[in-house]
Amino acid sequence: MSREKTVLIIEDDPLLRLTLTAYMEDSGYTVLEAADGLEGLEIFTRESPDIVLTDLRMPKLDGLEVITTIKTQSPATPVIAFTGTGDPLAANNALHHGACECLLKPIEDMSLLEAAVVKALEQT
What CATH number does the domain located at 6-122 have? Predict the structure, then answer.
């Protein structure tokens, strides 16, 4: 029997976090939520989710630091980053730090996010 996959969503925008959580739960995932990078890393360490979705620009601890820490603690855990800046360097930096994908916000088609999650989980 396969167990339900757990997704950790680290996003400082409460409305976007709620939207992402609702979509991923509707898609059959167990979802953990964090409002910033520090809280996200605490939950990651405690819960060991199967995949992490993180914003890059957040207070307290930014997404690049989150990605680096997760990849140090658990290299096999896939991380998908998202950014609201139109800066191509932000996406490139996220990939360089270990993210398997970087999506641009606003995420207008949630099925693209879900496809990225499925693809990342299949590769682990």
Answer: 3.40.50.2300
